[in-house]
């Protein structure tokens, strides 16, 4: 399915992507697998008004969702909440990442959750009220309970049974009700303070989408019409680090995912995330993780099946 979209913010190509269905239709399922595009960065972020559940059928991909990066490979499940900005792409131009998606009506899911909460005082949370977020990519090796629930959801969607939509809604509701117990140790991006700063927001969004570019601190400041020192001071106040350090943080997070989930050479990963030499990645990575990229891969390698 092609996601037809309407742009409302031109600067960073954040768009609302409605589905080709009636607003009150409970379930939409992609009968045709989706080939994630191969791009060098993340040229577009989009969001839906529904819960999006997917499963990777082959290939390797990379997801950006609300500032967090995830790799995806065969058997991994994908979770995107309503209004959650995200984008996905293949990691290889030779073999695209193939996924299949279901989209479930958010109000129906949340009404069922509210009913369950009313009947059981022990149920006190849904996705939107969670202290820790649900990861965008969910792996069976890490969260078998979660993938079992999502596998049931996708199976009933594929079967196209008369009561399939109801069963899928129920499966997603149970998944969300259990989420707080399932996901309790999620490493995230630096948490910004509650202060608002339009210039910092603009530059942080730019860096998320273009982490592989080599803009200088001065060039970043020019983009928001501030001096270099002003942007640096205001960025540190929100994120606890200057813009260039934040970009290095993003690059290392993506590099860590690629080291764990892909066979790419360290030099190729360094080039992919924007470093001109593998030694630059080595220095930044060791500063952030305390070990070299090669040692990180050895300690954290996850086997994949293409």
Question: Could you explain how this protein is built, in words?
Answer:
The protein is α+β, with helices and mostly antiparallel strands. It folds into two domains: 6-182, Jelly Rolls (Sandwich); 198-300, Arc Repressor Mutant, subunit A, CATH 1.10.10.60. Helix content is 42%, strand content 18%. It has ten helices and twelve strands. Strands 3, 4, 6, 9, 11 and 12 form a six-stranded antiparallel β-sheet that branches. A hairpin with a 4-residue loop joins strand 1 and strand 2 (14-16). Helix 4 packs parallel to helix 7 (243-261) and helix 7 (243-261) crosses helix 10 (293-300). The longest helix has 19 residues, at 164-182.
Overview in brief:
Helix content is 42%, strand content 18%. With 306 residues, it is α+β, with helices and mostly antiparallel strands. The longest helix has 19 residues, at 164-182.
Q: How does the SSE layout of this entry go?
A:
Layout: E1 6-9, E2 14-16, E3 27-29, E4 34-35, E5 45-47, E6 50-58, E7 60-65, E8 68-73, E9 77-80, E10 86-90, E11 98-105, H1 106-119, E12 137-138, H2 144-159, H3 164-182, H4 198-209, H5 217-223, H6 228-239, H7 243-261, H8 266-273, H9 278-289, H10 293-300
Parallel strand pairs: 2-5
Antiparallel strand pairs: 1-2, 3-11, 4-11, 6-9, 6-11, 7-8, 7-10, 9-12
